[in-house]
Write a structure and sequence with these properties.
binds NADP nicotinamide-adenine-dinucleotide phosphate; Elongation Factor Tu (Ef-tu), domain 3; Rossmann fold; globular; 293 residues; 8 helices
């Protein structure tokens, strides 16, 4: 990763004090109607020239209304799920992957809807909303020919959808090898799975594997997680990561980080490699990119 190039990636064209007015073009539920997980694909639109970004960046959405102190709600950040030429390829639309979130008050057990995710999941085409950003440079790939290992849990797939959309729009010679390891509770929760499988069919350098934690078990009877699936494809992962330009991206739940570290340590041992050494090189060269919450 060239840090000088990374530092040039524009951020904060629109701040919360002066956000961009955008229109919801479409909203589609990605999970089945009876699934407890309500994940939606939203496409936002603006006028030509008003917004641009790099794959791996995020936008802020300003929830309507004010908080208990009468102040505007802080923006909530979401990864952009579209390539930098836009969802429609004309630079005036981007997609977000939003899960309807609920939280529980520990003292009372009362379940409350998350403000912004419910606002977005309930929005209707034609609704106008306020958007800020783009923000974030950490997850932006600068070399699409570099080998990549992308590991996502749940809606953490959003930035990788942008990567894969971009990849699908590049000429074959402009793309490197890529392994995607994506985990969700059930097959139904694997957002964009059919689309990704379609990409694999036409992109011989792309390999996508899944972990369905509530439908598959490990050999010792645990839920199948991305780290377990990564172990199954350890030879491919290690071959990719051994390349001096390789980049490793993790996105999703915070808990996945330790599991992936442990899996990579095991994989390294099996292949006569040195994970602590490789991790240090990846970190030093900014080729290890992590966005977990
Ligand atoms: P989720 O549905 O709760 O979980 C996704 C999968 O991860 C499930 O199969 C889950 O298994 C599994 N999992 C749970 N603990 C794990 C662990 N320790 N190691 C590996 N896998 C584990 O995920 P989600 O609700 O979509 O949450 C995704 C996260 O991504 C959130 O923290 C969100 O903030 C973050 N994120 C979102 C965006 C966005 O733009 N929307 C962008 C970046 C990051 P079980 O439930 O069966 O245990």
């Amino acid at each position: 990763m060239d840090l000088a190039l990374q530092a040039q990636i524009p951020v904060n064209r629109y701040r919360p004090s002066a956000p961009l007015r955008v229109t919801l073009q479409s909203i589609e539920r990605l999970t089945a109607p009876d699934s407890p997980n309500d994940v939606r694909h939203l496409v936002l639109r603006w006028q030509p020239g008003e917004f641009n970004w790099h794959e791996g960046q995020s936008v802020g959405i300003v929830p309507p209304g004010v908080n208990a102190k009468g102040r505007p709600h802080p923006v909530r950040l979401f990864s952009i799920a579209s390539a930098s030429d836009g969802e429609n390829g004309d630079g005036t639309t981007l997609a977000l992957t939003i899960k309807r979130f609920f939280w529980t008050i520990p003292e009372t057990g009362e379940v409350l809807p998350g403000l912004c995710s419910n606002y977005l999941c309930d929005a209707k085409p034609g609704d106008q909303m306020w958007m800020t950003g783009p923000v974030g440079r950490e997850m932006v790939p600068l070399d699409w020919t570099a080998p990549m290992v992308l590991v996502a849990t749940g809606t953490g797939i959003a930035p990788f959808r942008a990567f894969l959309q971009q990849r699908s729009r590049l000429a074959p010679a402009q793309r490197g090898r890529c392994l995607v390891v994506f985990g969700a509770q059930t097959a139904d929760d694997l957002s964009y799975r059919a689309w990704m499988d379609g990409l694999v069919a036409t992109d011989p350098l792309l390999h996508v594997v899944y972990a369905r934690s509530r439908e598959e078990k490990t050999s010792d009877g645990r839920r199948m997680y991305v780290q377990d699936r990564l172990r199954h494809h350890g030879a491919v992962a290690w071959e990719l990561l051994a390349d001096p330009r390789a980049e490793l991206y993790l996105c999703g739940l915070k808990g996945m980080e330790d599991g992936i570290e442990a899996a990579l340590a095991d994989i390294a041992r099996q292949h006569g490699g040195d994970w602590p050494g490789l991790r240090q090189r990846l970190r030093d060269e900014h080729r290890l990119r992590i966005e977990v919450y």
